[in-house]
Every structure is written in structure tokens, then in C-alpha cells.
Amino acid sequence: MSERKSSHDRDDSERAFFGRRKGHKLRQHQAGLIEQLLPHLALDIDRKAPADARDIFDPASNDVRLEIGFGGGEHLAAEAQNFPATGFIGCEPYVNGMAKILAQIEAANIGNIRLFAGDAAELLAWLPRESLSRIDLIHPDPWPKRRHWKRRFVQDRTIAAMARVLKPNGEFRFVCDIDDYCAWTLLHLARSPDFVWLAERADDFRQPWPGYTMTRYGRKAAREGRKAAYLRFRRV
To answer: Which residue intervals make up region (Disordered) (predicted)?
Structure first.
């Protein structure tokens, strides 16, 4: 998570895309989706959060899940289509990733996704207590240099924030092909009183869970010989 100005010192456009805001220049249609479709799907955390996160969706969903840093959106779009009665919130500060998920939403007419183009820590602080059944963090930026480890999403404070918004028996799921970050995550979750690692045998973390949609990054990692770990933690 990057250092940023306070909400009083930055305008909406700056808050929307901090950090790695842009990559390749957007095509005309992608730019149009950012300007026209995103405002209809974007969460405004300056407004008071609903008492029940299911009311974020219209019609209200049966359940709510969050994917943090969804990248190209392959996993998020697939989950939303496979579970149409569930509401999905996708958080991604990278504008090109936002354009990609918007294109998939438009093409498949997906109605159960809402988006937040900013810092996941702010979103977690805004969401109601015990409002989510699951949080996914798939192939996050590993920040491999020691001096950058404080920027990794998995920290004691974010684990506590996730515990606040997850329902009892809800899950935090983490996928990563960087051994050091997997060990980091296991260490931090092991010392949290709010989570239990669900693995009972090696294949429980060596193999994707049933129904998992492999992302573009995951396929690239496999081609390059890096094996991912699939970690599941239950909120106690």
C-alpha cells in the first residue's frame, strides 16, 4: 500500500488510481468504458456504508465476496458468472485492469459486480462488520525487496481488517507463486487469533481449489516453472 495524501488533500481522480495507475495507453473503447460504465458500478466510500453489504447490489444479493487486486479480471468475471446470486466487489487501482474487467462485464452483461478503484485498506474500513463470506487475493505484487516488504498487502493490520468484515466461517484465499511471500503470509496468518489454515495435506495447498479459474498471470508463472500455492484460511 502506497503512501498517499489524506482524503482532504487529493481530488477524486487522484484517489481513484494511486500507485501504478496506468500502463499501456487505453484504446478508445476502453477509455469510453472508464468514463461511461465505471461510474455506474463504482463504490463511493465517501458515502455512508449500507448496514447490509448485500444492499450494494440491485437487486440485493444473497451473499457478498471481495477480490483484491483482480488484475485482468479473469477470475472475478468467471466467479460472478458462476454464482449469479452472489454479489462481487472487485478492488483494483490499476486503470488498465479496470478497463479489462469493464470490457468483460459489458460483453457478458454481468450484473453482480461492483468496483472500487483504490486502496483495499480504505474499502475494508468502509465495509460493514461481518459482511463478506470470502476475500480473494490472487497473485498480488510480492514486493520482493526487503525494504519494500511493508508495502505487501498481507500485514497484521490488514489481516485484522479482513477479520472484521468476514463472517464467522468466512474465508480468506491467497494464491501466489513467490515462495517468500507464501511463507510471509503463512507466518502472519498463523499468529492471528482470527484465522485457521485449512490445509490438511500437501495437495490442499499445491492444487487449486475446485472450480478455480486460472488467471493469465498464473498461466505465465506455470510456463516459467514457478509453482503457485493455494492457501485457504477460515475466519473463526
So the answer is: 1-22
